[in-house]
Write a structure and sequence with these properties.
23 residues
Length: 23
Amino acid sequence: MKAMAHHYVVTAHKPTAVTACVT
């Protein structure tokens, strides 16, 4: 759950980075 929260923060800060991570 902690990782998810951190990931969520990153998403809000850098949506582009999230897309790359998901890919």
